[in-house]
Amino acid sequence: MKVLLSWIREFVDVPESAEDIGTLMSVRGLALEGLEPHGDDIVMDFDVTANRPDCLSVIGIAREIATAYNRPLNVPEGRDFSPAGSDHAIAITIEAPELCGRYAGAVADVKVGPSPEWMQSRLTACGIRPISNIVDITNYVLLELGQPMHAFDLHQLGGRAIVVRRAKPGESIKTLDGKLRTLTPDMLVIADASRAQAIGGVMGGAHSEVTTGTKRIVFEAAYFKPSSVRATSKALGLKTDASTRFERGMDVTAPARAMARACQLLEQIGAGQAAGTIHDVYPAPQSAAPIVLERTRVPGLLGMDVPDANVERILRSLGFDVQSASAEASTSAEASADRSAGHAGWNITAPAWRVDIKRQVDLIEEVGRHHGFEHLPSTFPGVQQAPASSDPRIARDRRVRTALLGMGYSEAITFAFIEAAAAEPFLGGDAPVALANPLSEKFAVMRPSLLPGLIDAVSHNRRHGRRDVQLFEIGTRFSPRGETRGAGFAWTGLATADHWSGARREIDFFDVKGVVEQLAAVSLVSLTFGEADVPYLVKGRAATMTVNGQHIGVFGLLDSAVGDRRDLPSGDEVYVAEFNLDALIAAAPADTLRATSLPRYPWVVRDVSILVDDALSAEAVRGTIRSAAPSTLIEVREFDRYQGKGVPDGKVSLSFRLTFQSPERTLNDEEVQVGMQHIIDALTRDLQAIQR
Amino acid sequence: MTAIDTSIGPDRARELFRAELADVRTDAELQALRTRWVGRKGSWVAAFMEALATATPEQKKTFGRGANELKKEVEATIAEREAALAAARRPAHAVDITLPGRTPALGHRHPLSLIRDEVGAIFTRLGYQVLEGPEIEDDYHNFEALNMPEEHPARDMQDTLYLATPTFASADASVGRPRGKAPWPPQPLTLLRTHTSAMQIRHMEQNAPPVRLVAIGPVYRKDNLDLTHTPMFHQVEGLVVGKGVTLADLKGTLAAMAEALFGAGTGVRFRPSFFPYTEPSAEVDIQCIKCKGAGCAMCKRTGWIEILGSGMVHPAVFEAVGYDPNEITGFAFGMGVERVALLKWGVEDIRLFYENDLRFLEQFGL
Lengths: 692, 366
Ligand SMILES: [Zn+2]
What we know:
The complex is a heterodimer of chains A (692) and B (366).
Chain A: E1 2-4, H1 5-9, H2 18-26, E2 31-38, E3 41-47, H3 58-69, E4 91-94, E5 100-110, H4 117-125, H5 133-145, E6 149-153, E7 161-166, E8 172-174, E9 180-182, E10 188-191, E11 196-199, E12 203-204, E13 216-224, H6 226-236, H7 241-248, H8 254-268, E14 272-274, E15 279-281, E16 291-294, H9 297-302, H10 308-317, E17 321-326, H11 333-337, H12 339-342, E18 343-349, H13 360-371, H14 392-406, E19 410-411, E20 417-418, H15 420-423, E21 433-434, E22 445-446, H16 451-463, E23 469-479, E24 482-492, H17 509-522, E25 528-531, E26 537-547, E27 550-558, H18 560-565, E28 574-580, H19 581-587, E29 604-613, H20 618-628, E30 633-642, E31 651-660, H21 669-687, E32 690-691
Parallel strand pairs in A: 4-7, 19-23
Antiparallel strand pairs in A: 1-3, 2-3, 5-13, 5-14, 5-15, 6-13, 7-10, 8-9, 10-11, 11-12, 16-18, 17-18, 20-22, 21-22, 23-24, 24-28, 25-26, 26-27, 27-28, 29-31, 29-32, 30-31
Chain B: H1 9-22, H2 27-38, H3 44-53, H4 57-88, H5 111-125, E1 129-131, E2 136-138, H6 139-142, E3 162-167, E4 189-192, H7 197-206, E5 211-220, E6 232-242, H8 247-262, E7 268-275, E8 278-287, E9 304-313, H9 315-320, E10 329-336, H10 337-345, H11 352-355, H12 358-361
Parallel strand pairs in B: 1-5
Antiparallel strand pairs in B: 2-4, 3-4, 5-6, 6-10, 7-8, 8-9, 9-10
The structure holds zinc ion.
């Protein structure tokens, strides 16, 4: 809200500089947005919060300043003007009192022309274009008092009557901006005997617009229902200075005052004279009910003491009616003698312009902000019970995050909404969770997976010259079944950093599998792997992860077609993995971890090398070994796999290191040898293995 | 190198030796020097001994002492230098310690994640529980229960992103069931939460006071990307409810947080403001971390930088969750994680947080 310093000073005596006023008001609830010179005057731009439509006016801002500086607000009691006649000179009927609570009109004979320089200058400074003396008067009153006004050319009003009614179905009106607008019956119009002449609280009609030829006008100042103006303005896509104010709630007592001011200005600038008295139609006068302000509640909510005298001064200065309320139970002479002891608080009535005041806390805020938040002490809330524990996901995510950081992955955070096409391969048969009003096509659907975002991040880094990229993200994935928390990572480039001493090696499937296994290990679960068939991974280099049959995630080599669509440099091999952390935590054992004692007897190690069919999986060989082995076999590890010279085509040479140990005794050579023979027999019998 | 000539006498020879020793740098040079001066044959000392044999008794007396002193000095000095060279020599197993090491892989934390953790740690220390909630919300928890009914002007302040198809499902167990009331029909989830305040409601619906929590997580608004806006950003929401909680308690708490985040002595300022879910409401500034309050371009010469919105929980919010506003009071605040990170580290473009450029991420530690 832009206001001129000189205009404010008409209502309150503040010799202080605009800067000083701005600094103080910024900590009293009216933030100063900017200062701008205007001739030898200054335009002050205040940020008025949505709950304070009364401050969309010079008088409203002056009232706040007067309270802040503890100075009187000088409001003229009435505005004198001399009507030519003693009757209303117009008939006004409110047919829709539920949408229009008050309607004041006044007829005036006018000579249309430009308004005086000083008036034009003030309007211009406040961002309103001067049009003619009549329109300028309505805008001047709008700025000064906050009451929107309108002026009709009386000769264009059929039947010399004003009817405030709902629009008829299909009724249309050409508004002042030249557009033809079709109305609906939930909209309010100001009509003459036959047709709509204005949209109530939003905009006037072109037909009765004041022109240079206008001789007689009707000024309008009314109170319209906020929700109705809001709905009409929204439906028509038409926002005006008037609608902005009406939809936030105006002062129901203001129309008469505004009308008097307009008629007085008319005479003052020689633009005309009121033809009759003000016709003020106010079918159901409203009065505000007092609100009880309990004395103890002020320090109880604010945590600072405000002297009674200051409570009363602040509220009275802001226009509230303040009456002391005595304590219900103690009306004794002693109690009333000791005002503070027997004094329970106040009965407060808010002025009509304070549409935001509904409860006791609203009053306490008024007292608090004008007493000054700078007087608040710094204290801490008392603790009444032991703090409750935090969301367990936080500790779980931290564990996974720490492990990934330790394995060289940097943490990414990507937008949760992505392009529909980027989400498509990851939907897994679900419908996408799409947005109704996305910011753009790039942010159209909620991500079903963390991988599209990570792939884009890898692509960004690769296109900016980075060869090795390791990134992970922990975040929410969305499906029609709800939200799940996941952890995803992407890896491209070298397995270890370049070094002067050694050979470089590109990452492969088993680098990624190792990371996946470590993540399972820190979560205290062990994974079972199966072949994965998903549209975004290369078949044969992709695996699913399960824990006790529960699907946990997938990993593998990214399909180059998916990468190409995200502008990954062609030829890049990117490995990706994604875990469902919620499923992982559900699969993890409850907090039943028990440490086991260290073994007391030595272990025995035996190696075995065999030739088998190369289509046989390592898992199958391991399984055969385990099922044939004695219970003292504690570990089976592949330590060599060889194909080439000396190994027939279609065969592979596998070497296993087997570790035997008993918790009860030292194993002897003979029993280990018997166990090894069982294993070799089984491998030979079941897998047609040949011992090498 | 001067040819061996005993006629110059031992004293002059000693000067020669000292000069030659001064030029010796390596073991090999030292061994050559030794041979030349004290070798069994053809050395300076050997030559003096030979000359001595043919000298007159008178010559022997002075010349002999001089030659012996020369021999002693040469041997002692060479031994000394030999020890010094040995001490300076690299052993056979030595490496060039100035070559680069093999760097074990180690990732870097995202700056927003660092702030999340830091704020979580500060409030954990102050006895708060840290919570996370659903990101897709229903209209009730995001707006209505927070004193923003359909027609409330405050809904103008935030442009909300809505789902094309409302869903009824949520993986989050804390979907609202007000305490002590009959279970509600499931609320359709229709929008991306515009603030973490929705989490406050869910928590209060299920837990009796006192409450002391911070909720941290992503929130969404229909803001175009620019230097200071992204359509998704992160928020920290704090809520304390109990008997006798005051605005002064909020001030003390936020002052403690500001000092923990931005350094000791960082002052806070409360400016009255308006939020539908708090009354009184305050915007909170911290003393400009660049100019320490003196006024600079970063703080628009005010000495203060806005950091968060806060206030005393509105009684209508308590009523919505079944708390009695005559019995308890509470404070709440909401702060942007990105904003803190921008200020704390002097990041000039908020979009850097979402590009995940390793050149940016690697500036941050673990
Ligand atoms: Zn500054």
